[in-house]
Write a structure and sequence with these properties.
- This is D-amino-acid oxidase.
- It catalyses: a D-alpha-amino acid + O2 + H2O = a 2-oxocarboxylate + H2O2 + NH4(+).
- One of its GO terms (molecular function) is FAD binding.
- Strands 6-7-5-14-15-16-13-17 form an eight-stranded mixed β-sheet. Strands 9-2-1-12-19-18 form a six-stranded mixed β-sheet, with helices on one face.
- The chain has 353 residues and is α/β, with parallel strands linked by helices.
- Helices cover 33% and strands 26% of the residues.
- It starts with a strand and ends with a helix.
- Helix 1 crosses helix 7, helix 1 packs parallel to helix 9 and helix 4 crosses helix 9.
- The radius of gyration is 20 Å and the shape is globular.
- The chain has a domain of 176 residues: Rossmann fold (3-Layer(aba) Sandwich).
- Bound molecules: flavin-adenine dinucleotide (FAD).
- The site of flavin-adenine dinucleotide (FAD) has 42 residues, from helix 1, strand 2, helix 2, strand 13 and strand 17.
């Protein structure tokens, strides 16, 4: 099978890896051409992301599909990441310590609403209630600011730096993948050439062309929109938080995602906009004050970056796999790229091979 993948972001890279691996496992020949208009070091959406894998807490404010796809992806990450580490020798940090949901006293009504919805939607084994003394034992640096927490054990955070590094090493060392950086491909429409498997930019014919262009597929998928998100990344040697923390907030879900060696990502704003210009002062103040309110040890943290990115979303904020003859589009990952991409990629591969 000969395939082209247009867009080497999160979905495109993951698809290239898993497709080749699947064909190797099943003794099928495969050649993948991976094209991206950027270089591989480009700070794209998947790199900006906090990379939380949170099927249960995300489902509370969205649809049950979020939980269903998220649980599938969670299990696939647990299976796939050790394979990637073994094949490349690169450690990929996957924090599987769960998520804590907390609220400051002023936001307690939001926390209680979240709790009611979570209790109705979440299997009992996937959610616990922690008192202040349990918080003191399990996550002591939170117990000064919060009296209680909801705990979701089967959630976590992927360190996307180490993930991309390992994945790029794997793709580079794989003879089945040819990676074209700085190659722009367009006209991936149902009337364009890609439908018949021909890609003008490569001047080649393929069995399948995958459109994994994220936000930039809007020219061919008119229902796609962009949702701006902003994050801050800090290094805080004085802070020792081990789990992902979600702070109920009246305007958007705020979270702190722990990374290795006392690094933390806090995000994310959610703004209906296709403006990907730098982070605003207002958003930076909101994110940083939320961080400081959680633990005053963050006051001496060093800001590593403030980044804005655009999430590709359809009207229902759910992802879609759209097949138009030999053209297959995977898009609409919204704020759930890490939560949805493994499940979608696996579904596509099972349907083809
Ligand atoms: C602030 C923020 C926080 C987030 N946090 C999380 C989180 O905690 N958990 C989670 O699951 N998700 C999170 N996400 C969402 C996640 O990052 C996205 O859903 C995911 O990155 C989308 O992946 P994609 O492959 O569809 O698009 P992208 O990763 O954007 O990749 C698209 C690629 O296509 C390339 N391309 C575009 N047009 C062309 C063209 N014409 N020719 C060639 N190449 C092209 C681009 O250069 C790009 O590399 C977050 C997103 C943001 C912005």
């Amino acid at each position: 099978m000969k395939v082209a993948i247009v867009g080497a972001g999160l979905a495109g890279r993951l698809l290239a890896w898993r497709l080749v691996q699947h064909c190797r496992d099943t003794d099928q020949p495969i050649a993948v051409t991976l094209c991206d208009r950027q270089s591989r070091s480009f700070m794209g959406t998947g790199r900006i992301a906090a990379a939380m894998v949170a099927p249960f807490t995300e489902a509370v404010t969205t649809e049950s599909t979020t939980r269903e796809l998220g649980v599938v992806s969670w299990r696939l990450w647990q299976k796939w990441l050790p394979q990637l580490e073994a094949a490349t020798g690169h450690k990929v940090e996957f924090n599987q310590q769960g998520t804590l949901v907390v609220a400051h006293p002023a936001d307690l009504p939001d926390w209680q609403r979240f709790q009611q919805k979570a209790q109705a939607d979440t299997p009992p084994e996937a959610m616990q209630y922690w008192s202040q003394s349990e918080l003191q034992q399990q996550e002591p640096e939170l117990s000064h600011a919060f009296r209680q927490a909801m705990y979701f054990p089967e959630e976590g955070v992927i360190d996307n730096d180490s993930f991309y590094k390992a994945l790029d090493t794997w793709l580079d060392s794989t003879q089945e993948v040819t990676w074209h950086e700085g190659m722009e491909c367009g006209e991936l429409s149902s009337t364009g050439e890609a439908t018949r498997g021909y890609l003008k930019a490569c001047d080649e014919q393929f069995d399948y062309v995958f459109d994994c262009r994220g936000n930039d597929a809007r020219e061919d998928q008119s229902e796609l929109r962009s949702v701006r998100g902003e994050v801050v990344r800090v290094h805080a040697p004085e802070v020792n938080l081990t789990r992902a923390i979600r702070l109920t907030h009246p305007r958007y879900p705020l979270y702190i995602a722990p990374r290795p060696n006392h690094h933390y990502v806090i995000g994310a704003t959610t703004l209906e906009s296709d403006d990907d210009s730098p982070v605003t002062v207002r958003s930076a103040l909101e994110l940083l004050s939320a961080l400081y309110s959680l633990n005053t040890g963050f006051s001496e943290a060093r800001i590593q970056f403030l980044q804005a990115g655009l999430r590709p979303a359809f009207n229902d904020n759910l992802p879609r796999i759209v097949r138009e003859e030999q053209l297959i589009r995977i898009n609409g990952l919204f704020r759930h790229g890490y939560l949805f991409a493994p499940a979608l990629v696996d579904e596509v591969i099972q349907s083809l091979c």
